[in-house]
Design goal:
By secondary structure, the chain is of the alpha/beta class. It is built from 11 helices and 8 strands. One of its GO terms (molecular function) is hydrolase activity.
């Protein structure tokens, strides 16, 4: 029985996932396949290397990492902090363990959206630290907030546009069942790019028409995705974990709120642990 783990992004809301994953690491839970999207890519990397606490640390603004309680909402926001998260953190106070990652037998993939096709692309990297970080950076390139990323001859934006929780990909990769961790609580409104069509039209419609179309249907795709996940959960093929309450938002800069979301993830995982282990063992 091959069971995969797939991890949604959500910028700083991913600190909930950090709590869940750190608790799972305490229980020595392993997966042969892990897929991450956007900030969920950082979650995937750290789970492969079993670096407990690292995701919680790096997802925070650098001011909070230095011991301050609050950061400025704009001046220390995600856009300003992106290079520190995607590149600087790999060699920072808690460096990423590239050696363990590349030596791991775990198949770890990252979801990107190809601008030329408007379709999801799944990438992995077995040996090159720079390319690995480039892939994760591209997976996090939210349209309008960040520039389009280039890898090779193609251009990419955030994987959340086309495949926010890549559970179908996990099944394609041979997984019989999937543990899926979402960062959005039930009923939470997700980004509806249709609201920004006046901005997105000149940015993408002529150069990347298929990407523009993908952005316009992303909201409906997201709704259908959760309907499908809930169906698969009832069938015993998916174990879905997600926040129960709204504790922090995508661009949170308040330490108390970020910590509350992390500890909610820890508590949630502990309460779900018996059911999770039963799911992992069931044939």
């Amino acid at each position: 029985m091959k069971i995969g783990l797939v991890l949604e992004g959500g910028s700083r809301q991913t600190i909930f996932s950090a709590g869940v994953l750190d608790t799972m690491l305490d229980e020595n839970i392993e997966f042969p396949y892990i897929g991450g999207v956007s900030a969920g890519g950082h979650a995937a990397m750290n789970y492969v290397t079993k670096q407990k606490g690292r995701l919680r640390y790096i997802i925070m603004p650098t001011k909070l990492q230095r011991g301050e309680k609050k950061a400025h909402r704009i001046l220390d926001g995600i856009r300003k902090e992106s290079r520190a998260l995607h590149y600087g953190a790999a060699y920072g106070h808690i460096p990423f363990d590239f050696d363990t990652f590349f030596a791991s037998p775990v198949k770890c993939e990252f979801t990107l959206t190809c601008c030329e096709t408007g379709r999801p692309v799944y990438m992995s990297e077995p040996s090159d630290p720079k390319r690995l970080l480039d892939i994760v950076n591209a997976s996090c390139s939210v349209p309008m907030l960040f520039p389009v990323a280039q890898i090779g001859a193609k251009h990419y934006v955030d994987g959340c546009v086309t495949d926010p929780i890549p559970y179908r990909r996990a099944f394609e990769m041979g997984c019989d069942k999937v543990v899926a961790i979402s960062t959005h609580y039930p009923g939470e409104a997700v980004s509806d790019f249709r609201k920004y069509s006046a901005v997105l039209n000149p940015m993408f419609k002529h150069k990347y028409l298929d990407l523009f179309r993908a952005l316009m249907v992303r909201y409906r795709r997201y709704q259908r995705m959760f309907e499908d996940l809930e169906r698969l959960e009832k069938e015993g093929k998916v174990f879905l974990m997600r926040p129960e309450v709204d504790l922090c938002d995508l661009f949170e800069t308040d330490l108390d709120k970020l910590n509350a979301s992390y500890f909610h993830g820890c508590d949630y995982a502990r309460r779900k642990m018996n059911a999770l282990k039963a799911f992992l063992k069931a044939e």
